[in-house]
Structure formats: structure tokens, C-alpha cells
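Hi there,

I know you've been waiting on this one. I reran it after we fixed the sequence typo, so this is the corrected version. Both the input and the resulting structure follow.
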Amino acid sequence: MTPWPYPRWIAHRGAGKLAPENTLAAFRLGASHGYRMFECDVKLSSDGVPFLLHDDTLSRTTNAPDSLGTDNNATAGQHAWGALAQLDAGSWHSPGFAGEPLPTLEAIARYCLRNALFLNIEIKPTPGLARQTGEVVANHAAKLWQGASVPPLLSSFEVAALEAAMTAQPDLPRGLLLDSLWSGWLETAQKLDCIAIICDHVLWDPTSLGQARQAGFKTLSYTVNDEATAQRLFDLGLDGLITDRVDLFTPVSACA
């Protein structure tokens, strides 16, 4: 894992807002804009299949309330993969993506490996399933990327999920996600043996960056969608920027 193997620019949920998030179509579109690394959210179906979805519920990005006969607040993780696989996860975005399915982590892994792309897997547990999700996602990732020169970066806001991932697959790299600099954030990242800290971009300043760097962490930021913010972070020396604006920022190369 030395030197840092990942590109600086990372496409958020595949292609930001240009395609239905967390779908294979989004990954393909992001790749067509020159992106070589992607961020996605992964949770578990009720029968333990890791699949891509950000929200706890299915209502925002699928046709689940109609097709599954659920209410808008039904939890995605309460459904088996066989039912989830039948959902339309594209029509909500635009008609051109109608019928786009939810992808499994395995499908995304195969696409990334086949095309020499890098991945940041955010472990996004159903409430109450942080440890189970961290363990299962880590085990699947280790199997899917077995023998690959660069493994995926596992990240989460959920400390318990990262703890479980570390126990299950200690060799997979981890990053702690932060939406605030809560008390003990740096010590927690050290305890989890993380290699990176991934912050809301407003949290990075010379002080916080210096603390993270002095402790040996790589530093990443989400979600960077304007040129002024990107320039500020470049000037600070951030190692990675996660963006929705794959149409605005074009990576110069795989390592730009």
C-alpha cells in the first residue's frame, strides 16, 4: 500500500448526478468522463447479499413502493435479493435510464477489475446491522479482489462497521468517514488501523490536515463540486477529492 495507489479524483456514486447513483450505468458514464476511481455505498439484503444503495429506504431511487407493495419508509435491507434485483433503479433519474437495476457488489467488482478501475466502498449498514455488514462486505471484497494489485478502500461513518471489517479482513485498507471532528476522531482512526481519513470538505483546514498528516493518514474529502473548493483543497495538499461533477473536473490521468 506504499506509495498511495489511488487516483486523486473519485467519482461520487459512479457519476455524481449525471446518472442514477450507485448503478452500473453510473460507473460506465463516470468512466466515459475519464474517471478511474469510484465511490459507492454498499448494504446487505435480508439474505446477506451486498448490493449498492445509499438510503435506508428504497423510495427515493427505485420503484419499490409500487412494485413491492411497500410504504415509502420500508427498509431496503428487509427484502431478499431476489426481490431487490427486480426493481427499477433508473427511472427516478430520467427516462433514458428506465429499467436500470440495482447492482450487487460482485457486479461492480467485476466491472472495475475488468477495466482496471479503483473503488472506494462505503459500508452503509441498515440500522442495527453495522457489525454484520462490515464483516460481510469485507469478506466479499477480499474474495472478489483476491490477487488484485490494488484492493478497494473500505470506508464508513460507522465505527462498529469498520471494526468488524478490520477483524474479518485486516489486510484490506480502511478509511474513517467524518461529518464532524468529534472528540477522539484521530485516536479512533488510529485504533481502527485506518490508512485514510475522509472528511466533509469544510472540515479540512491547516490544523486538521496537519493533525491527520502527522499521524500518518492520507486525507480525502467529499463532496467537492466547485472549482474554488477544489483549488482550496489542492492548495492544502489533499490526497483525494470525491465529486459529483464528473462533467466539470476531468482527471488528467489515472494518478491525477
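Quick highlight: The first strand starts at residue 9 and ends at 12.

Best,
R. S.
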